[in-house]
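$ ./design --mode recover --in tokens.txt
reading tokens...
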């Protein structure tokens, strides 16, 4: 299992689950790591599934196709909405607007009642009226608005301008014990933004790591260009990280003050509670934000991102997409979500054309 890619491991877990023939499926972000083909397969499976399932997901197109009830968690409350995610958003927006209007009206009333009590409680002639208004204030069911969740604001720093050629491969064969690719001859130039797509286990991550020199290629070579400032987002980080988020960032940027460290993490949508916690106790999405934070605060001119949208919530995905669109450097992005990468890249490389594997 440990030798498999993230997507292949997800498939094994799904196969095991389906063979158990459960009465109810509990699926926690099952589309993470899955390629487009298998997301489509899972969609078909769930649409035909006779029993109930509960699904946690940030993949909105997927949610819209397979669910008919939404439970929304906010402010320690769970609210039920009938319909798909788009319908929930419409109803929720109306409900939120109504609550905010009621809150404003009530705050106005409270202000007027308090003012009346303050002006009239000392006068004998109006004391009774003041006391009755005070009673009304004491009995009032005060409307509280949910605290706004911090929305992440991602902005990548662009460093110096690199040479025209970012990298070039010559008969590069990637793999571990056996080849995963045919001999590859391709290059990437400054300013290009490219998505790398293909089935799970086809060798996308291996290719990225071979370009970066993190693993040796089986044969051939990769030549990196001049003045490169690389930013690499790894698909997953092995091992338990006992650092707090503050320590994690400080190790990377020792010259930062405590205020700068906290501010950088807060901009990525992490609350004070998250910032002071150990990285290992955070959710997958929060851990991804810490790793993105390290990348955002470094000067780069070439980003190599391996499935950066896994675990990210809707707001974080939107912010990341905008940051990548605005980024002045070059991007090589592994991603299985067309609705994410289509607006970011100007070219798509399909690894299934380069593989030695037969699927």
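writing sequence...
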């Amino acid at each position: 299992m440990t030798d498999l890619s993230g997507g292949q491991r997800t498939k094994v877990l799904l196969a095991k689950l389906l063979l158990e023939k459960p009465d109810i499926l509990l699926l926690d972000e099952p589309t993470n790591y899955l390629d487009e083909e298998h997301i489509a397969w899972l969609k078909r499976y769930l649409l035909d599934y006779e029993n109930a399932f509960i699904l946690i997901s940030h993949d909105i197109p997927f949610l819209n196709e397979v669910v008919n009830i939404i439970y929304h968690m906010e402010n320690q409350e769970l609210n039920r909405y009938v319909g798909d995610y788009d319908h929930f958003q419409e109803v929720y927006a109306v409900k939120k607007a109504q609550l905010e209007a009621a809150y404003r009206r009530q705050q106005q009333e409270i202000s007027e009642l308090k003012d009346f009590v303050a002006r009239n409680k000392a006068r004998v002639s109006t004391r009774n009226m003041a006391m009755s208004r005070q009673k009304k204030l004491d009995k009032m069911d005060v409307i509280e608005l949910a605290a706004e969740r911090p929305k992440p604001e991602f902005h990548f720093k662009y460093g110096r301008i690199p040479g025209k050629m970012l990298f070039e491969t010559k008969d590069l064969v990637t793999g571990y014990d056996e080849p995963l690719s045919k001999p590859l001859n391709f290059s990437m130039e400054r300013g290009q933004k490219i998505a790398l797509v293909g089935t799970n286990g086809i060798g996308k991550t291996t290719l990225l790591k071979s370009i970066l020199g993190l693993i040796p290629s089986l044969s051939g070579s990769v030549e990196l260009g001049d003045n490169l400032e690389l930013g690499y987002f790894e698909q997953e980080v092995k091992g338990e990280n006992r650092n707090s988020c503050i320590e994690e960032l400080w190790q990377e940027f020792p010259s930062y003050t405590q205020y700068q460290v906290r501010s950088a993490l807060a901009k990525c949508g992490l609350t004070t509670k998250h910032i002071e916690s150990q990285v290992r106790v955070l959710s997958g999405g929060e851990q991804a934000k810490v790793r993105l934070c390290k990348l955002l605060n470094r000067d780069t001119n070439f980003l190599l991102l391996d499935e950066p949208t896994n675990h990210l919530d809707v707001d974080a995905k939107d912010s990341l997409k905008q940051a990548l669109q605005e980024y002045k450097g070059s991007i090589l992005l592994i991603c299985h979500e067309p609705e994410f990468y289509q607006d970011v890249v100007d070219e798509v490389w399909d690894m299934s054309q380069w593989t030695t594997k037969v699927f």
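exit 0
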